[in-house]
Amino acid sequence: MIAQLKGKISTKAPDLVTIEVGGIGFEVFIPLSTYYDLPDRGQEVILLTRIIMREEGLFIYGFLTAQERSLFDLLCGVSGIGPRLATNILSGISPQELIGALSTGDSDRLQAIPGVGKKLAARMALELQEKVKGMATELSPQPEPAFAEREVWEDLISALVNLGYQRQKAVRAVRSAMAAGGDNSNFESLIKEALRLLTT
Fold it and tell me: For residue 170, what are the domain limits?
């Protein structure tokens, strides 16, 4: 079982990325939530993976976060949802919003996802509501900073992304730096703290 791939990005598209590992290129299907946070071509990335066996061959599905992969696994366990549809669902709604809709049994929100009809939405809510309740508590996003700190927040994330860090990692580092209790209007001290967190 291949649990993850670490290598350089050869090509990338919204639904497919090629990762070069030891001179071998692996095609990996991805959701949009992963695509948006991928580094540029030629840069290294680590994708958490699931291998799906079919008569026509092996297919690799990849995710930047354990949260995405866990949701993929849960979705594939629902009758009528295969790996491609599970990936499409993750492309049509953010992981946090999907967890929220499932945990509250919000069939209307689920039905709004491309590829999910009324019956499938009801089945997803019925089968996964209890299974995601723990995830809703564990993975619920922390609040973003107050309006007065918003400009610094955006500048910090933009600076880290420009330095090559993935946006999700940059957001976590900035959030932790701003939660440390210092002066959240001081860009220089915050960027130093965020970089320290990213490199330790």
Answer: 147-198
